[in-house]
Amino acid sequence: MKKFIILFLSLISFSLAAQTGTAPVRPLFEKKTVGEIRVKVANQNWADALDSLRIYGGSYMDATVSIDGVNYDGAGIRFRGNKSYATGLKRNPFAIKLNRADSVAAQNHQGYTTIKLSASVRDPSMIREVMFYEVASQYMPGLQACYTKLFINDEYVGVFVNVESVDNQMLQNNFQYSDGILFKAGTEEQQENLPSDCKQSIFGSLEYEDNIDCYRSNFDLASNSGWAELQELTRLLSQGSKEVEKALDVDNALWMLALNNVMVNLNSYSGNHSLNYYLYRDSNKLFQPIHWDLNLAFGSYKNTGNGSDLELKELQTLDPLLHADNPYKPLISQLLKDPLNRKIYLAHIRQINAEFFLNNLYERRAQELQGMIVVPFNDDKNKTYSLDDFTRSLKETIGKKSKIPGIIELMGKRSKFLKNHPELTSLPPMISEVTVQGRGKFENQPISAFNISAKADRFPKRMWLCYRFHETDPYTWMPMSENNTESLASGMKAFVTQVEAPSMNAEMEYYILAENAGTVGYSPSNYSKQAFKIKIEDLNK
User: Fold this and answer.
1) Any idea where the domains of the chain sit in the sequence?
2) CATH architecture, range 431-539
3) How many other C-beta atoms can be found within 10 angstroms of the C-beta atom of residue 207?
4) Could you report the per-residue pLDDT of 349-375, keeping only the tens digit for each?
5) Phi, psi of 83 (to 5 degrees)
6) End-to-end CA distance of the chain
């Protein structure tokens, strides 16, 4: 219904635009076209002025901004980034704030008050961020990214990746709640006078600290409060995966880790420094992980924290269970101690690999993305890489010193390695005949419970029904009972369970998980984005 309403409103806007002779405003993160942002500032030597603001701790430079033809006064612009920023360059990452002036406090573009532009540092292909976010969005809540051209005082600065900011609009879109606690792993400001008992150089590893002040050197707090809740998360994580379910969306955390591993995103929790992710505590008091800063994905950053940087072959054959036994990476090692979590994590890896990489879908998309920006890339006088580097970067390593792998060069062999890895070759149970019992033709008594049955092959050990009655609620896991009343083929089992409806208007959203000795299977396979739904009134028709 929600999709129909959005489509209906879109059709109305296009119809009105046709009647008035005006073009509809381009959605900010529309991925089929390249956007355009034009900035006007008073200082003609704007790059030097922005460097000065950055060096001496200033905020934003006053600006007027046009986004795809929509104009905003009272805005501001600055350079952003940590290691991705360099003095003397015009092509640095940018942040644009649309409501810098007090007089325009409510000003926004399609709900967004901040625009963040990535310069794609160490990414000659310019597709790493856009592709990673596109793949990740199929499995867990996350950010949007697209391309836009940037002009400052009518000077073409270049084509950038426009990455959605982790702000109220993004949180509302993904979690229907924007008042929760928000942390970013890693801090850009050096903390002074830290307690002497703090662990050193642990970054965003989520190791437990007795002294709550120690967390301030490893996380930036983007909400009004939350240090005690973060400490509690790490305490529960130190006690094991079952305890941490009280404070963390474990399945989304497993998706985040699986995505990092498949696409060799080591400038992340999975790499050396446990950085570049957000933690957002939603309305259910569960922390949700959010990917961030992905220009070094697909092997551009090569250090796992175990020895020197990896060579291409080592990146192609990166262990899917990297850090599974590392006590200094508790989000991985503690979660994967649980046998079921381990199977789920590996199943996530297998699914990502099958749906995007083994079938070469990523290769076709990579070529589409580069084709979209090849002209504005070539026109960019500030670009770090040549057009030849850009063109070759999909299939060849670029740079004799930096050795940035070609994405196809990396993932072609990596996808085959993962397919044949001993931890990923077990065949999952195939779930079939998922049925919700309705009221019989001549039955007078209305149904007030959801009676669900399903079958699975390949010798399933257990089956769970995962259900909820509101899209923002966490799923409740209910073990299903084996049904021995049917005569089934060898290796096949049937399971049943019942869930009482909270009201006669209830709608239940659900999926089914089956486990065998080697792995797990889901129905539907895309449960994280589109689970089954059934209304109690439909069962009574």
Assistant:
1) 1-26, 176-337, 431-539
2) Sandwich (2.60)
3) 20
4) 999 999 999 999 999 999 999 999 999
5) -75, -20
6) 20
